[in-house]
Amino acid sequence: MAEKENKMDKIVSLCKRRGFIFQGSDIYGGLAGIFDYGPLGVELRHNIKQYFWQKFITEREDVYGMGAAILMPEKVWEASGHIGTVGLVDPLVECKICHERIRADQSEVIADHEKTHKKEKVEWTDPIKFNVMVGTKLGASEKTATQVYLRGEITQGVHVNFKNILDSMHPKIPFGIGQIGKAFRNEITPRDFLFRLREFEQMELQYYIKPDEAEGKKQYEYWKQFAFDWYIGLGFKKENLRLRQHAPDERAHYAKDAWDIEYNTPFAGWKEAWGIHHRADWDLRRHSEYSGIDLSYYDEETKERFTPWDIECSGGVDRAFLFILLEAYSEDRLGGEARTYLKLAPKLAPVKVAVFPLLKNKPHLVEKAREIYQKLKKEFGAVEFDDNGNIGKRYRRQDEIGTPFCITIDFDTIEKPARAGGDQTVTVRNRDTGKQERVSESDLVSYFKDKF
Ligand code: GAP
């Protein structure tokens, strides 16, 4: 276990050192449960979201994308059931010695806290329900300022736009609306790096179907598998992921059925990565009641009017980011030397290709390397140039951030044209195997074309 816990520490340190993740407001002592993404982190996060958008939205004919606002009035959250003591609430207990407040359902956190009081016997208050919605006021005048909430789930922005999408896009049921964006929860005990945050990003699909048990079952099974396959596509080993059904007392207030995709983490075993929820007509029905606006759907084919059911796929971007790093983090010996590398799927890697001149002080090598770098950068974007230190060190630096390919321009590139036409070759080195092959300069773009 110690070795496994160690992996998390190593990842946290790598993330800071190499510009993936920084503690939020670091120079002011940090803010618990809040993290900032650095230059490499923001690229990896973008690539995760891009893959979601591609598979859940743009590749499909039956799903629309949208981007709703973060701030929403109190009434939205009353309707959705998130404020009050039913919805987004966690059980909270307080230590009677030091008054620290902790989630009552996290035995590990409780045990850790009790250890801090050494020999004193810790007593806890009875659990109370703590609502984790983050509220604020909008408006300059005390009297007229309105209570609003930063969304606790991105879902409600979709449901409140259901009629707008019907009226503007005229979709035929079944259809979905997908979205990516920030959500906020005043988590009692943010912990485990990016796992439990107070500000985080979600990627979600709300899929509207006919209110029918057989249809609900069919669509639910389909989306469970679709979400699971998508997760595998991020580069996970199948044995490290599983689908688990919630027990009835575990389900969110809106869910008729709920399954999680879980990842086998080194820090706490199986933990939730995604939720797939059968929300039935909970949201549309409640928003119809609370807003007074009819959110039903008229089926032209069957001439029926009904309130659709919703099957939801909801995943955390930051949690996927953390699990991807845990899965990708590797240590081995290559050519007799110890190294750390991130075995990231090439489509997720923040840098796709790094280009090196063998020597920094040979202008003809540098010039050629820069020419190839510019060409590939124009084509693939995330390409780096590096002429600092010896080649071995440059490989290690790229391995550590998960760059799948490195290209070296050496004397042979310049002096030994591979073909009669004078074409030149470079070495392309594979991150995982360390194997190198010579590729003609003119073939480089097509060599990389389908790899990212
Ligand atoms: N719309 C449904 C919904 O929000 P959820 O299970 O509460 O369902 C969905 O959240 C996903 O959002 C989770 O599977 C997780 O990946 C992510 N998530 C939830 N709370 C989080 C937190 N405090 N920090 C990071 N990610 C979180």
Automatic annotation (TrEMBL):
Record keyword Nucleotide-binding present: yes
Entry GO CC: cytoplasm; extracellular exosome; microvesicle
A single GO molecular function term of this UniProt record: glycine-tRNA ligase activity
UniProt keyword Cytoplasm present: yes
Swiss-Prot/TrEMBL GO biological process terms: diadenosine tetraphosphate biosynthetic process; glycyl-tRNA aminoacylation
Annotated PROSITE patterns: AA_TRNA_LIGASE_II
Gene3D superfamilies tied to this protein: Anticodon-binding domain (3.40.50.800), Bira Bifunctional Protein, Domain 2 (3.30.930.10)
Domain Aminoacyl-transfer RNA synthetases class-II family profile: 9-350
InterPro entries: aa-tRNA-synt_IIb (IPR002314), aa-tRNA-synth_II (IPR006195), aa-tRNA-synth_II/BPL/LPL (IPR045864), Anticodon-bd (IPR004154), Anticodon-bd_dom_sf (IPR036621), Gly-tRNA_synthase/POLG2 (IPR027031), GlyRS-like_core (IPR033731)
Protein name (database record): Glycine--tRNA ligase
